[in-house]
Design brief:
The protein has one domain (about 1-240). About 35% of the residues lie in helices and about 25% in strands. It is elongated and about 65 Å long. The longest helix has 21 residues, at about 255-275. The protein has helices at about 1-20, 20-35, 40-55, 115-120, 125-135, 165-170, 240-250, 255-275, and strands at about 60-65, 80-85, 90-100, 100-105, 125, 145-155, 160-165, 175-180, 190-195, 200-205, 215-220, 230, 235.
Length: about 280
């Protein structure tokens, strides 16, 4: 149920972006401006920004930012919870702001994926065995991947919001092969390929000694692009909003009274943006 609700959401999200590209361009510009403040600041603020984008501009959906303090209590990887107000279905979304390249889809907290694959040897190409692997609890993440990645190219100042097609990846897997070599590789990985030897994704080393960046389900946005759907219909150019940096710096040394006045003006601006784009909430 959650997966279908997420698919419906991404379709609606994509339609909104295509109809009102200026809104997402503005939002992405504001998000990636945060890299001027700190290299990792944009990732945390992207969660807040996309959640508010949903609340303000997607009239059939509402979103709540889960917050980092609840991380250890989460049953699934999620940064925001979205609810379809028509069907009342709720589903988690994990937001990622990554450079174009390696992308983590699941952390495999219980470290079950790699050992399961290892039990089948260095190469797995039997169709029945592969099908059985995907039904194992260790690979339940394949039916629960609600990852919404904001993939960016900082040099070109472009962003592409991509959704990994887990169903296509699963159905296209022809063989799984262990990889032990490669530049900078510290631990082995099991790589998934289709029948034309195209890379799909990989499961990284899953021993308890490996950290979150050394284990779990990963893919590569450059090498596995056929297995992604672009919500933004390709790359969107963004620009830095230097006024936003000034707003943050001044807000940090001003009172809540000043914040309330600024917030009131910002809310008025959002309403004008809705009117200008014909969005009724």
């Amino acid at each position: 149920m959650s997966k279908n609700a997420y698919k419906d959401f991404t379709k609606r999200f994509s339609l909104l972006i295509k109809k009102h590209p200026a809104l997402i361009t503005m939002t992405l510009s504001n998000i990636f401006t945060m890299r001027l403040i700190g290299n990792k600041t944009h990732g945390d603020l992207a969660e807040i920004a996309i959640s508010e984008f949903i609340n303000q501009y997607m009239y059939d959906f509402k979103s709540i930012h889960v917050g980092k303090d609840l991380y250890r209590a989460k049953s699934k990887e999620e940064d925001i919870t979205v609810e379809n107000e028509i069907t009342n279905e709720k589903f988690p979304i994990s937001l990622k702001a990554y450079g174009d390249g390696p992308l983590q889809l699941s952390t495999d907290k219980t470290s079950q994926m790699f050992p399961l694959l290892e039990s089948h040897g260095d190469r797995i190409d039997d169709k029945k065995t592969i099908a059985a692997i995907f039904t194992e609890d260790a690979f339940s993440c394949f039916s629960e991947i609600n990852v919404l990645p904001l993939i960016y190219d900082e040099k070109k100042q472009q962003c592409n919001i991509l959704v990994f097609d887990a169903e296509l990846a699963r159905n296209s897997t022809a063989y799984i092969k262990k990889a032990t070599e490669g530049a900078g590789r510290k631990h082995p990985a099991y790589r998934f390929y289709d029948d034309k030897d195209n890379y799909i994704c990989e499961v990284r080393y899953g021993n308890a000694s490996a950290n979150a960046l050394q284990r779990g389900l990963w893919t590569n946005t450059k090498n596995a692009i056929p297995f992604f759907n672009s919500v933004t219909d390709g790359w969107i150019n963004y620009s830095h909003n230097l006024i936003l940096v000034k707003l943050f710096s001044h807000a940090l040394v001003s009172s809540s009274k000043g914040h309330a006045a600024a917030l009131s003006e910002i809310k008025n601006d959002i309403e004008k943006l809705k009117q200008a784009n014909g969005i009724n909430v």
